Prior knowledge:
TIM Barrel
Amino acid sequence: MSDALFSAEVLRSGLALGASMELDLRVRADGGFVVLHDKALDDETTGCGSIAEKSIDDLRDIRMKEGGRPLVLTEDLSALLQSAHPEALLQFDMKDDYRAIGEKGIAHLTRHFQNIATSVVVSGASLELIVAVKEKLPHLKRGIDPTDKLVEIYRDRGLNAVEADLLGDIRGPTEPDTIYLHWQLILRAAKQGLDLIALCRSENKLVDAWTFTPKDPGNGFSDTEWHDFSTLMALKPAQITTDEAPATEEAWLKRRAG
């Protein structure tokens, strides 16, 4: 968490080491993308206004509030991925839906990532968007994140409806490689008798459980965190997303060693 938000330096190091990393993408007015989480520039950068209304030229002089760094664009990501370690994996978490991104955005991704091997997984909540990516960039890995939808279904219609809806998405036209699920949803469902990870594995899909970060990484897991994390690990997700990877690994090994 002490690393600068969306740092190109950390990204470059991770790609060289063969790490699995995630970043957020927001669509620009010209169809390209910028690595930011929010819809507006105001909180994360020195700019203001909607990102969707800004072109690449509008963003060149804008800086991140942390350290005055330039923004990272998809053009930069394409260049960085050319020399990535063969085991590196970079998740593009698409924060906009297909209606916002449209054919122009898909064309931009195709132009810049058509020669990238399997170092990228494009994920998002918009199934229409992931289908469009599959059609234009079939060699890239794909992921879907139905968490928000499943939480609503769980609240309104119960676990049987969650299971049916998730299976429908898994077997649908996106043909995802990875299912991204919030770790608390996974544990809540498991406590009520539905193992979402086993369900996905039965369909030959990987599960990423996001985002588990210890509140005090320097001192390892609290007792509650250890209970939750060990329960999550017992369900065997393929990957756990965390903002404190080395500290989480150290905490896990320390607790296991007693």
